[in-house]
Amino acid sequence: MNDSLVIAGKSYGSRLLVGTGKYKDFDETRAAIDASGAEIVTVAIRRTNIGQNPGEPNLLDVLPPDRFTILPNTAGCYTADDAVRTLRLARELLDGHALVKLEVLGDPKTLFPNMPETLKAAETLVKDGFDVMVYCADDPIQAKMLEDMGCAAVMPLASLIGSGMGILNPWNLRLIIDQATVPVLVDAGVGTASDAAIAMELGCDGVLMNTAIAHAKNPVLMASAMKKAVEAGREAFLAGRMPRKFYSADPSSPTSGLIGS
């Protein structure tokens, strides 16, 4: 079955996107990403060297752009101007690379998105020729505004970044998914494989995660579990779950033609 994830006109076989931070070293980073099967890896430009600091270890030596789609992000940015400046730098470092992840944070404690600044930055970046995947609140109205603005994908949080709390508001996610014509990916809050599976069963087009893998006791094994969870959740969504029946049972075996009846 050909069921590719298409973002900004490019097809990907994996619907799991992973971050590159919080691992103990670059070797563990690469091993976990290989186990995840991810093709898109996100990199915090303000925290990770991809060439802006000559002489320091370069992540691109471990995750070469000819093997992975590098998704520069604006983690650590709290204003639209900082986010735009950061992604313009990333485009220079990556030879004109247009696909980016925008996140503009509201405060350092919750890392909740600052939506007015996010909308402002998204508008500027789209006009500047970027393909913008945008971290946002699970607000259907603002998600639609970002889509109408021309963003390539909307990425509502499941719960706070790094919290591992899973999907706290599945109803809002469904509202966003049902109205969207661009990919919707859960970003932030996934804690374990069942969270990823639930996101996919709801109809999300993909899941992005970092801490759930990097802070697991065995990151490589957790990456493998997340790969399987995303695949299983997607298959379950495509298969179509049985209707819920709250007040009646439905026997698995036929009730007609029973022996002795």
Please describe what this structure looks like.
This protein is of the alpha/beta class and 261 residues long. The protein is 37% helix and 16% strand. The chain is built from nine helices and ten strands. It has a five-stranded parallel sheet. The longest helix is centred in the C-terminal third of the chain and has 21 residues, at 219-239. The chain is globular. The termini are far apart.
What is the secondary structure topology, with strand pairs?
Layout lengths: L4 E3 L2 E3 L3 E4 L6 H11 L3 E5 L14 H4 L6 E5 L6 H14 L5 E4 L12 H13 L3 E6 L3 H10 L3 E4 L13 H10 L5 E3 L5 H10 L3 E4 L1 H4 L4 H21 L22
Parallel strand pairs: 3-4, 3-10, 4-5, 6-7, 7-8, 9-10
Antiparallel strand pairs: 1-2
Helix pairs in contact: 1-9, 3-4, 4-5, 5-6, 7-9
Strand order of the largest sheet: 5-4-3-10-9
**Can you write the helix and strand succession as a string?**
EEEHEHEHEHEHEHEHEHH
Quick one: overall form?
globular
Beginning-to-end CA distance, first to last residue: 44 Å
Would you tell me the overall average pLDDT? Answer: 91
How many H/I helices? 9
> Number of DSSP strands?
10
**C-alpha Rg (nearest Å):** 20 Å
Helical fraction: 25-40%
Kindly estimate the percentage of residues that lie in beta strands according to DSSP. Answer: 15-25%
Largest sheet: 5 strands, parallel
What structural class do the secondary elements suggest? alpha/beta
Low confidence ranges:
none
Descriptive terms for the model:
261 residues, alpha/beta, 5-stranded parallel β-sheet, globular
